[in-house]
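hi! just following up on the protien thing from before. the input was this:
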Amino acid sequence: MSKIAIIGAGPCGLSMLRAFEHLEAKDEKIPEIVCFDKQENWGGLWNYSWRTGSDQYGDPVPNSMYRYLWSNGPKECLEFADYSFDEHFGKPIPSFPPREVLFDYIIGRVNQGNIKSKIKFNTRVTNTTFKNNKFEISYQDKANNKILKDSFDYVVVSSGHFSVPFIPEYKGMNTFPGRIMHSHDFRDAEEFRNKNVIVLGSSYSAEDVALQCNKYGAKSVTIGYRNNAMGFKWPKGMKEVHYLDRLEGKKAIFKDGTEQEADVIILCTGYLHHFPFLEESLQLKTHNRLYPPKLYKGVVWQDNHKLLYLGMQDQFHTFNMFDCQAWYARDIIMGKIKMPKEDEIEKDINKWVSMEEKLENPDQMIDFQTEYTKELHSMSDYPKIDFELIRENFKEWEHHKVEDILTYRNKSFPSPVTGSVAPVHHTPWEKAMDDSMKTFLNK
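and the predicted 3d structure came back as:
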């Protein structure tokens, strides 16, 4: 029987483990599986840690999660087909839960069987090579500082791509008297109460970090965008201006001539796809995009079909897309799905990449990723889920954000799994300062 390595026990790695658990439940013999995770707990990005920089073993901290983070998309869009929110919580819950609630849901699905016994925690993969039709993985047992080796027939890379920050430099940073940080190290908006905050970026992290700082009492929040403004109707105390030109003392000077006093600069400048634990010939090289090149069906490495990547796309769809990828990857490993000839693989990748390059707006991007996920879904026995409803939910959510960026989290959506409609949360998001699960579920 073959042997599989899974690198990472976040949502993607757990999807992979869950996919095999479904086969086991049907009394099918599954391969030996070893999952490696650097952290001491599962859940990947959804783990909150106060740590930034390095952990106690000198390993870079992968966590980018902060306190008071609430889901920035409807939970109904990321629901697991085989484990609904209603099943986990015993009742419908509001559509935009805080981190602790989502973490509880993710872990609830994998807690019942023997999945955890397959994971080596506090274990860092240091190198992966491929020779003689086998992968050799070197890994460090961090607690005992031992390097060990093992060989595998398949490797699934599920290490995510939101843990190695991209940190640009701007003129005047060296002499800026305030704090400069990447959003990867952002932990608590309370720190910036009564401060003038500059947020650089125009993606989800810039949007949410800026709103958090405003919500928890920042004196002012100025967002600097590079190419396209987010263009929302920002609340009082917030503005969006064209990108940072330079810093002069405590003053931030922007390309459009805006000058703003600054106490802190938060770089929401994105993350790198970074795989130092793979030899170069196995490394995916891409920026953050909806269809990275060289991955057949967004999963199978074109140059070596025993190497599979999960969740490497820029994402509207998340947990249930990762599931569809994992179920598909499982069936490739099990020999239930046969890989086509090289020229067909090339043609299929090129088809998706060229469609992706023509996308112009969020609605088109949602359609693109929905079609991709539906195709994968049709190729495996992943349980029934209404991706058409998810598509509608995403588009409605985008329009809610344009209507009012402060209130979109107060809306409710129908479940693509059970059909139940979420109740409206007891407290509007902008007034909900307590993000604990107890308060969210019980009031």
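The radius of gyration is 22 Å.
The longest helix spans residues 362-378.
cheers
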